[in-house]
Design goal:
Length: 295
């Protein structure tokens, strides 16, 4: 089949299906679309009806990639647009409704999907708090694992249940599902308070600031993701990196020092889900909790 011949996947037109997006693994547009169809059932709850930001690499991950938040020309019909109050000057945001939307994103050469922590019907009320644990120079993944458990313990002390996933990179995301009762500013203030409290208790290990100069040997507890336009990569999204890594929900029992996040890739996630028999985040929508008041 010629690389330029279009095909239909789940009813969505995919041009140049044999175009290679991950050259090291030979992963094509067709293969990436097939991956998203396989994980759609577990991924869609985290991305549908949420404004999304995209990392597009139309000619593959090693070529020019760019970040896109808003609708533009050449957007497939399967994508939707929504105007967000308070962000009208920036233009309409994109969102998807179903698995066909995921395939349409592949058609656009999207290698990373970053949803808002809120949904389009109430974009001002997030339903999750995200702590992005980013290790500085000299630290290994075992240090991130330890930090994740300590963040979890601190949250439990406050009466909050947390979930965890790999980022597709060198860190972990600790995620707190919440009821849609808090405004963004309140959620961000809570996350900042926890990050600063942990950094004050262990300044040699944690940092609540983005400063690269101070990062060596410490973990940046990034609370800045708790903002409408500072998104975090979606569960089960690929990353535009070597080996086609995937941001993967894991159980807390899996978060051990020898956990290798590099084993979670486009090639391995479908088999992992089949083996587990259930998504580690399957119950996220049933968790009802509110943030405590900040002291």
């Amino acid at each position: 089949m010629a690389a330029s011949e279009a095909i239909a996947i789940d009813g969505v037109r995919l041009t140049s299906p044999d175009k290679v997006l991950y050259p090291e693994q030979g992963i094509t547009k067709r293969a990436l679309a097939d991956y998203y169809l396989e994980v759609a059932d577990v991924m869609l709850p985290h991305v549908v009806k949420r404004p999304i930001s995209l990392v597009r690499c139309p000619t593959g991950r090693q070529k020019k990639c760019f970040f896109q938040r808003h609708a533009g020309s050449g957007v497939p019909a399967e994508l939707r647009e929504v105007a967000v109050a308070g962000h009208e000057d920036a233009g309409a945001y994109l969102y998807i409704n179903d698995a066909r939307g995921l395939i349409a994103l592949v058609q656009m050469g999207v290698l990373e999907i970053h949803p808002w922590g809120s949904r389009i019907d109430r974009p001002d009320r997030p339903d999750r708090v995200i702590f992005d644990l980013d290790p500085g120079e000299g630290l290994g993944f075992a240090d991130v694992v330890k930090a994740a458990h300590e963040v979890r313990a601190e949250l439990e002390r406050l009466g909050l249940m947390a979930l965890v996933k790999t980022t597709g990179g060198k860190g972990l995301h600790v995620v707190v599902p919440i009821e849609r009762r808090h405004e963004w500013a309140e959620v961000k203030a809570f996350a900042r308070s926890l990050a600063e409290s942990m950094s004050k208790a262990a300044p040699e290990r944690y940092l609540p600031r983005i400063s690269k100069a101070e990062r060596k040997g410490r973990i940046f507890i990034d609370y800045l993701r708790n903002d409408p336009t500072s998104t975090a990569v979606a569960a089960y999204s690929t990353r535009s990196r070597l080996n086609a890594p995937v941001s993967t929900p894991v159980t807390w029992d899996e978060v051990i020092p020898d956990l290798d996040p590099g084993r979670f890739t486009v090639a391995t996630i479908p088999e992992r889900l089949q083996r587990l028999g259930a998504d580690p985040w399957a119950d996220i929508g049933a968790i009802r909790q509110r943030l405590p008041a900040i002291n």
